[in-house]
């Protein structure tokens, strides 16, 4: 298929290494498919060990000059990159929807969201501060400085192919590091377009390198090569554990933003209409394919019937279809494997006693109609696993203690949400939930100004906010004596 772009040069199919667009050494390619209809969008060159090694060496060479730039100079280049993204937002939106499937309005929102991280860290680059600490000895001072880690490997998922990469590259570059990026093979085109705009912004060759293709070869080179000093990953908990273990061989710094199983709790005193509005955003955005997506919906018994009735009406109004069609709110899942898994989750719940309510007969292909599961229990897969689809299990509860225990009954702890008006209840529940991010009376928690990350097996480290630079900096202490002579 062809894309109707104003600037066709944004559609790249080569690896970006040392400022050059290069083919793979063996000339092999892989197909990028539109998840709505299965048509081929592009054939992208498949990088492997050699290309990844070259990209790492390029990043190491570029690091020498990039880290010497002043924070203000790096900030200026990041701002130019941000401006170019804003200027090309419609083409970037078309590319993102074509390869990922989400509706155009959501894709446009993702581009803006990702660009905001670049702008934020362009500003934060000028605020990397140190400290002066009094020493116990006379004539001696301690200085604490912060400096770049070095070459950073960035591995990103397919569900937010633009924003997740921007959220990693921006703080890395702001801190003075260089990067080698591996986007998901399902959605490499958004990442490569960002690389092209970074080049146009004047970010020097080798500062940003992008390779995609042979996932195992690329991953092994990124984790084993001692030049890479940090690896940042967004994706599944299982893969994150493996990357962490592999990175330990060279004691790399790692930051992991991994899977979630978010509870969404509605207490009796909640504003039901507000709670439903928040649930619709949290659960059904990106067809439910988000790591902070509401996964288990707990409704207190006093408002359960009212809430279920209102949710049925809300999901009946959602339009499922191709992301480019006017009015589409639910696009396809990313591929056939994903849609089969979600259908299997629904079937498992049904076999174990859940009532399955859908707004319409599920369409064919990768499309899944918005679905409610009532009378669910904790022995069902939907209670334990990240659904990653437009499926909402609803569980009735009686007491605060009961729902806290159920909400925390998961090995992961990324995001949680709850609706209530009682101020004492709000404080107790927000502190009792074992999750890194908690939305109170809101279904939206993602923003460049918040520290994004989880607890338990949802990973380590934080992205975004003023804390987001910490994972990309080394702290060094300087003890200076003899200053009184």
Automatic annotation (TrEMBL):
Organism the protein comes from: Hirschia litorea
Residue ranges occupied by any Aldehyde dehydrogenase domain in the UniProt entry: 21-477
Highest taxon of source: Bacteria
Enzymatic class: oxidoreductase
Active site annotation, chain numbering: 257
Family, similarity comment: Belongs to the aldehyde dehydrogenase family.
Known EC number: 1.2.1.-
InterPro entries to which the protein is assigned, alphabetical: Ald_DH/histidinol_DH, Ald_DH_C, Ald_DH_CS_CYS, Ald_DH_CS_GLU, Ald_DH_N, Aldehyde_DH_dom, Aldehyde_DH_Superfamily
PROSITE patterns reported for this sequence: ALDEHYDE_DEHYDR_CYS, ALDEHYDE_DEHYDR_GLU
Protein name: NAD-dependent succinate-semialdehyde dehydrogenase
Key words of the record: Oxidoreductase
């Amino acid at each position: 298929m062809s894309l109707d772009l104003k600037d066709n040069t944004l559609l790249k199919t080569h690896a970006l290494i040392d400022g050059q667009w290069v083919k793979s050494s063996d000339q092999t390619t892989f197909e990028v498919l539109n998840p709505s209809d299965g048509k081929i969008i592009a054939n992208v060159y498949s990088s492997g060990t050699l290309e990844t090694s070259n990209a790492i060496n390029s990043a190491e060479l570029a690091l020498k000059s990039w880290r010497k730039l002043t924070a203000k100079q790096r900030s200026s280049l990041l701002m130019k990159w941000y401006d170019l993204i804003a200027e090309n937002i419609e083409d970037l939106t078309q590319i993102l929807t074509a390869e990922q499937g989400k509706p155009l309005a959501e894709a446009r929102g993702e581009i803006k969201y990702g660009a905001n991280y670049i702008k934020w860290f362009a500003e934060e680059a000028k605020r990397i501060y140190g400290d002066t600490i009094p020493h116990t000895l006379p004539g001696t001072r301690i200085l604490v400085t912060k400096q770049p880690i070095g070459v950073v490997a960035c591995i990103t998922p397919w569900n937010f192919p633009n924003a997740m990469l921007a959220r990693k590259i921006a703080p890395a570059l702001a801190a003075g590091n260089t990067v080698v990026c591996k986007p998901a093979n399902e959605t490499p085109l958004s990442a490569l377009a960002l690389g092209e705009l970074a080049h146009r912004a004047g970010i020097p060759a080798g500062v940003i390198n992008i390779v995609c293709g042979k996932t195992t070869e690329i991953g092994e080179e990124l984790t084993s090569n001692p030049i890479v000093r940090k690896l940042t990953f967004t994706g599944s908990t299982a893969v994150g554990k493996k990357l962490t273990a592999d990175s330990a061989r060279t004691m790399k710094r790692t930051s992991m933003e991994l899977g979630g199983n978010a509870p969404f709790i509605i207490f009796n005193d909640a504003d039901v209409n507000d709670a439903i509005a928040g649930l619709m955003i949290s659960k059904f955005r990106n067809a439910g394919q988000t790591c902070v997506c509401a996964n288990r919906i707990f409704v207190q018994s006093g408002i359960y019937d009212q809430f279920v009735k209102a949710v049925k009406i809300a999901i009946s109004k959602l339009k499922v279809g191709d992301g480019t069609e006017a009015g589409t709110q639910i696009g396809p899942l990313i591929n056939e494997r994903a849609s089969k898994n979600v259908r299997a989750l629904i079937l498992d719940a049904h076999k174990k006693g859940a009532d399955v309510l859908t707004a319409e007969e599920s369409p064919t292909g990768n499309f899944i109609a918005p679905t409610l599961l009532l009378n669910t229990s904790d022995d069902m897969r939907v209670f334990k696993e990240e659904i990653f689809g437009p499926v909402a299990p609803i569980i009735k509860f009686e007491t605060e203690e009961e729902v806290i225990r159920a909400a925390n009954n998961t090995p992961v702890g990324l995001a949680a949400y709850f609706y209530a008006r009682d101020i004492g209840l709000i404080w107790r529940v927000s502190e009792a939930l074992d999750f890194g991010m908690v939305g109170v009376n809101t279904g939206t928690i993602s923003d460049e100004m918040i520290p994004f990350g989880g607890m338990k097996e949802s990973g380590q480290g934080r992205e975004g906010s003023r804390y987001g630079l910490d994972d990309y900096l080394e702290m060094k202490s300087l003890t200076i004596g003899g200053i009184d002579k």
